[in-house]
Amino acid sequence: MIPRIAAWTSALTLDAVPDAVAAVARCCLVDTLGVALAGSATAVAGTAQAVAFACGASGNSTVLGTASQLAAPAAAFANGAAAHALDFDDNCYAGVVHGSAVVLPAALAVAEAVDASGADLLTAFIAGSEAEYAVGAAATLSLYDRGWWTTGVLGPIGAAAAAARLLRLDAA
Q: Superkingdom of the source (predicted)?
């Protein structure tokens, strides 16, 4: 399944995305960004930010709610915590996953690092979300029923797919 997802992700263009899907993705992107900005003021996000600043390298990816930037992995970590801190992040029932709270922080951080366009960010966000949800749908509820936190299992798949799309990695 992963090779098929990698091939699809690397070949996806925004022109190939149905307008209705792009519209929903834009809503999820804006909603998650708003939730993350609000969440960036919470104690848990503050702890994640402190860890990111202590362990992360300098870079040009924004840590939401601050005037600072870090390397993409550290910014994505801090922003992911902020996106989930208030538990208002979106949910997809394909695998029961809070998808955007993991995919968007990674995509946004990498997009800033590579100076990607808004269209490239949206395409990567869609690719990552679809990858995450495809694996979630294939797993049905088996992960959740066995006690796994599905956002933690499926989210990194989507985040990696979004980052790979922005980095223009091929399927290999």
A: Bacteria
